[in-house]
Amino acid sequence: MTQSPLVHLTESAPSPLPATPEGYLAGADYRDRVPIVIDHGSSELRAGFATAAVSVSSSSSSSSSAYSRYSSPPSIHFPPIVSKYRDRRRNAQVLLVGPQASLDTESRSKARGPTEGGLIVAQDVLENVLDFTFSKLGISSPEGREGNVDHPIVLSEPMCNPGYCRGLTSELLFEAYGVPEVSYGLDSLFAAYANDIGPEGVIVSSGTSSTTIVPMIGGRGILGNAKRMNWGGSQASDYLLRLLQLKYPAFPVRLNASQSSSLLETPSLLYSHPQDYHSHIASLSDLRKLQSEGQTVQIPFVVPEGSKRNQLSEEERLKREERKKEAGKRLRDMTEKNRLQKLGEKEEQLRRIAELKDWKGKERKAEWQKRLESAGYDTEQDMEKEEKKLSTAVKRSRRRDQVEDDTALEPEAPPTFPLVEVPDHELTEEQIKEKRRQRLMKAGYDARMRVKAEKLEERRIEAERIQADEARRTNDPEGWAAEKRKEYEDVIERMKERKRKKELLSDRKSLAAQQRMKNIASLASDGPGGDRASPPGGGSRNAKRKRAGANGAEKDDGFGQNDEDWAIYRDIQGAEDSDEEEEDEDLLVDLEENLLKFDAGFTRDMTLAARIARKRALTRTFLGGTPEGYEEKPVNPFSTKNGQKTDEQPEEELDEEAELAQLAKQHQITLNVERARVAEVFFQPSLAGVDQAGLDEIVEMVVKGFPEDGGVRERMVSNIFLTGRHTLYPNLDTRLQNSLVALLPTTPYGSAVRVRRANDPRFDAWRGTARWCLERGQERKEASTREMYDEYGAEYIKDHPFVSAMI
């Protein structure tokens, strides 16, 4: 499988060069007072003279489409943001507008826009933006701004823009710039007009702050039936950013909103799945499908100064490897020492329990119960349970350490110890010394005999188990295989649960970690009968560690003053002896061998190592892609980091070129699941936590708000128009059409659903506005003049087919 091509983040296309004041004064725009069209969006402002829309000569054939005659982009376009900060070098206040407002960190942190939620609310910022716009159009005058802009203004605005916001904008245009007349219109209706949508249809416009669904009847927007969806480019950018931050929590640099917006606007990087999204996501569990879906993006980075180079000599490299080997050997020796120490502690506890059991029957029941409680056990059952647990652990350790052959278990002539049973008063001093030596030898001999007897019994039981298992496999192979598979899955589940508990201990907010801290606090204050700290499994937790002094006050026992006191913390870190883990590992290996040998349905792909390999391959592909020619290496499912077993390879020294490539690789992200997930929020808003209906359901609701007779609904669903910069996802029109056909299967107009895209969702609103200005000519009856502003107020607006308010 070849690796997907690398995508580099690029900036948006630069704005065309602005006009000069000389060219403006000498041109026809100034002489004919051509209207200025301003499409003010939340993320981008497009402005230019209406004549700029004519891109073909007047001799063009009459068959040319209206869109081709108005296909030129606006003269200028830039993000409408302003940044004010003080330049310390020049000690002057600096005002940056547009792309310059994001040049450095300081200016970017102080950048502001005139809009909030798509509405213009900051008139001071809007004034700075308009100053910049008019200056780039070549309109400037040394006499000041009064009467400076002697052109009609046509300004787009969002749906149902409040009259107060519109009034503040009109006041700014009439009072500060002295414009002769102002017109307002809905941007999505202008975009539909640029694409010749027709008299009836449904316009779906998705911008930076929201998505609007506007029905159109008789070439006029019916705003009373329009709907708004709180999902747009800014929300999608934030959602994509959160997904990437969750996917790459340890990314070398901090992913920001501007990078997320660039990813959102990169062509064909994100898309909308045209059919079943859930089936598509489920199919990505296949490694090959996930590889083909991945798109790797290079995030810009800076090569650090003094970066690592291959400067180590051969002698230094050998010394480093030797130090690593010595460190690993010390770690293994320390691990073995700790294991033997714990084994000795358990054997000592077993000896104490045996001595405690010897007292039973030699004293009264009340005294025996008191002795039992003083040893840290509430009942005899607790003592037996602890004895069984310790005995199992000791046997398991002995079975690993003392590997003896069958000849070592053969009975031998028992040695004699004649002085052990003779009373001391009948012996001389030398015989008493010999008696003590014989007693120690007899105790060691008896212990060895017990171990041999236990091993013989264990081997007999194991032989009987193997024989019974063989008989079970011969008589009922299917039942045997099902039983072994269940046992195999149970062992894997136990290992997963044990690993999960260990991971929980690393989280200080988890219940397991909090319980461990409670145990630490309890051990620091409580202990058995004045002992510093009881060994695990023994000792009471109810006795007070603080004893009352002579004056009745509590007295500290000095826990923590000695280094030995802190060794207790190593015993309560939640990591029990690895004996159970090793037993499960041995059992898992044995089960795998038997299943592979005798169960034809159990293959290598079903083993734990194969499962881990597939999971790692999926994770690697999900996070960073799989390079070409990569082969998955065999996985050891029992790899640890205790210096004994590990899958990790030693670090290789890299040359300068390889190190730079590795640094670039660390600053790459791979999009696979996210490619279809972001656009799917249009149809499943709950994915991003938006409590609204999907886009297809809203369109259906809008269409059903009109009567069925007269074919109105059929004409509307056959003319659904997608526009807006946030509708650039590939297959979004196909997905919307398929979803609407599924929602309207039984209606007479369900089969007539047709969805079409805007030719240029970015600039079509500006083109439609320019076309409207040119076609109405000098008779601009829909415009609000300065006289109307003085007479009716700033919120007055003239009615026309593209009006953005319900009048």
Automatic annotation (TrEMBL):
It comes from the Eukaryota. The keyword Translocase does not apply. InterPro entries: Actin, ATPase_NBD. Keywords: Nucleus, Transcription, Transcription regulation. This is Actin-like ATPase domain-containing protein. Transmembrane segments: none annotated. Residues 462-496 have a biased composition (Basic and acidic residues). It is found in: Nucleus. Residues 1-20, 308-332, 373-430, 462-570, 624-657 are annotated as: Disordered. GO terms for cellular component: nucleus. Belongs to the actin family. It comes from Pseudomicrostroma glucosiphilum.
